[in-house]
Design goal:
Keywords: Membrane, Transmembrane, Transmembrane helix. The chain is mostly helical. The chain contains five helices and no strands. The chain has one domain.
Length: 196
């Protein structure tokens, strides 16, 4: 009988699995998704304004060189493509209600996380290359009548900004976004396993 009592006490001391509150998890997930979709919304808004500004520059300013127009066209295409990617991501994030089909929503979030990782991996460098090429072609005519010192300063500031954005800001942004997405996905996965 002592063995049974000892076995019973050991069994009762076993840690119990955390039972997640469905309401709490759904509130946290919705809050996280709303934050991500709000950030995407403002990025889309900024890209639309940028696209409009570039289009106005191309339409209303007269340039002498065809390379300037080519540079602006490269910028327009690059901004348009990134806008389309953002719109697709926004649709994935905010298209459905989590309470209707949680498993499909979880799959969509995982797809979104993979896409964002790929986007900020190799495609980001293509984006920077195209933007740099477009701006370089644009600056050829715009900075044509300025002093060599001003050109050197302008190009140096631009290169420093691109390097800072690529190696610091991009890294911090990707890290923060991936952590938020991983947290949301982890919560939903734990909730799903709780009901399996």
């Amino acid at each position: 009988m002592k063995d049974f009592d000892h076995l019973m006490s050991v069994w009762q001391e076993q840690p119990k699995k955390d039972q997640l509150s469905v309401d709490d998890v759904l509130k946290q997930v919705k809050k996280g998704i709303n934050g991500l979709s709000r950030k995407l919304f403002w990025n889309i808004t900024i890209m639309i304004i940028t696209l409009g500004g570039l289009f106005m520059v191309m339409l209303f300013l007269a340039f002498q060189s065809i390379t300037t127009y080519l540079g602006i066209a490269i910028l327009l295409v690059t901004v348009l493509l990134s806008l389309l990617v953002m719109l697709r991501d926004y649709r994935i994030i905010s298209k459905q209600d989590i309470t209707i089909n949680p498993a499909a929503y979880l799959q969509d979030l995982k797809e979104y996380q993979r896409n964002r990782s790929k986007l900020y991996g190799q495609l980001y460098y293509i984006y920077v290359l195209l933007m740099s090429t477009g701006l370089f072609l644009y600056f050829q005519e715009v900075l044509q009548n300025t002093s060599s010192m001003f050109k050197a300063i302008a190009y140096s500031v631009y290169v420093a900004f691109i390097l800072f954005s690529t190696f610091y800001i991009r890294g911090q942004f990707v890290k923060n976004e991936q952590e938020k997405l991983s947290l949301i996905i982890d919560r939903l996965t734990r909730l799903q396993k709780q009901f399996d």
